[in-house]
Amino acid sequence: MDYEQTIDTQADVGRAWTALAAVQTYPQWTKSMSAVEPLDGPELRVGHRFRVRQPGRPVVVWRVCEVTDGRSFQWEARTPGVYTVAYHHLTPLPTGGTRITIGIRQRGPLAGLVALFTAAKTRRYLVLEAAGLKAAAEAVPASEVSQ
Fold first, then answer.
1. What's the pTM value of the predicted model, to 2 decimals?
2. Residue pair 15/140 in contact by the 8 Å Cβ criterion
């Protein structure tokens, strides 16, 4: 099962990345997450794990599996019968803003069954996360931009 949400922000890629890379702050800007706890350190690095609590969902540990600094990251989670990858991409726009693309890919023998019960909430959470990231990126002061 694949789900994707895209939104444009006036924030440049540097400001958007600063907001995106601050994984622990996600609960401050999206109602789809109630807690993000780093298990190996707060940095967005391959191999680092984060325990994520979401309303109405079981707690899941996500492991960062890919980072392109300043542009994108992916993390993965494994639950019985389902392998999930969540991706986050930032694309510079000619206007100086950024296109934010976030999505979920689920595979495995139980992915279709899980989708029957969770598809609507997954889509709703992606909308919340994209809008929240847009607002968070636009709120990042230029002095705090990650390089």
1. 0.93
2. yes
Instruction: Identify the structural domains of the chain with CATH numbers, from first to last.
Output: 2-140 (3.30.530.20)
Please give the chain's pLDDT, 147 residues, in tens: 899 999 999 999 999 999 999 999 999 999 999 999 999 999 999 999 999 999 999 999 999 999 999 999 999 999 999 999 999 999 999 999 999 999 999 999 999 998 889 899 999 999 999 999 999 999 998 777 755
Q: Spell out the residues 6+ positions from residue 142 whose beta carbon is closer than 8 angstroms to its own.
A: 15
Count CB atoms within 10 A of the CB of residue 102: 21
Side chain identity at residue 51, one-letter code = R
Q: Which position has the token pair 């996600």?
A: 26
Give the pair of three-digit tokens for residue 30.
């999206």
Count of all residues that appear for the chain in the document: 147
